[in-house]
Write a structure and sequence with these properties.
149 residues, mainly alpha, 4 helices
């Protein structure tokens, strides 16, 4: 039984290795084709006049910079979106702090230690609250299904 198990594991590893080798071989073939295309383009570029070579180089650099610019614009949009989200959260937290401070000024100072501990517990419970929907953990699959449909 142990020998069969080891033999099966060895065959499985061999199969995985062969699949990995095949994938790497395919990847290498694709890279070889790309290299050949680049070499042909390079040789064609060398046959062009110096002025055309410069123009071709400039076109390639313009293409590269354009792609880089588009990537940077996309990154900027993501960062701006994140900044708006964070500003919105900051406003919400500032409002909560102001509400909390306002509630503290209206609360009488002569509280017993027990009452203060209860208030702290309630405040901590509110801080754990996330989202706008309250539900029981058991109802989560039903809620998700209803949201999807």
């Amino acid at each position: 039984p142990v020998l069969r198990l080891l033999e099966a594991q060895l065959q499985e590893q061999r199969r995985e290795h062969e699949e990995e080798m095949e994938a790497l071989k395919n990847q290498m073939d694709l890279m070889q084709e790309e290299l050949e295309k680049q070499q042909q383009a390079f040789l064609q570029t060398l046959q062009l006049s110096p002025e055309v070579q410069v123009e071709f180089g400039l076109q390639q650099e313009i293409t590269r910079l354009t792609n880089e610019n588009l990537d940077l614009k996309e990154l900027l949009e993501k960062l701006e979106k994140n900044e708006k989200k964070l500003k919105k959260q900051l406003k919400i937290y500032m409002k909560k702090v102001q509400d909390f401070e306002a509630s503290q000024t209206t609360v009488p100072v002569e509280r017993t230690p027990h009452e203060r501990n209860m208030q702290v517990a309630v405040q901590r419970k509110e801080k754990d609250f996330q989202g706008m929907l309250e539900y029981y953990k058991e109802d989560e699959p039903l809620l998700i299904r209803n949201l999807i449909t």
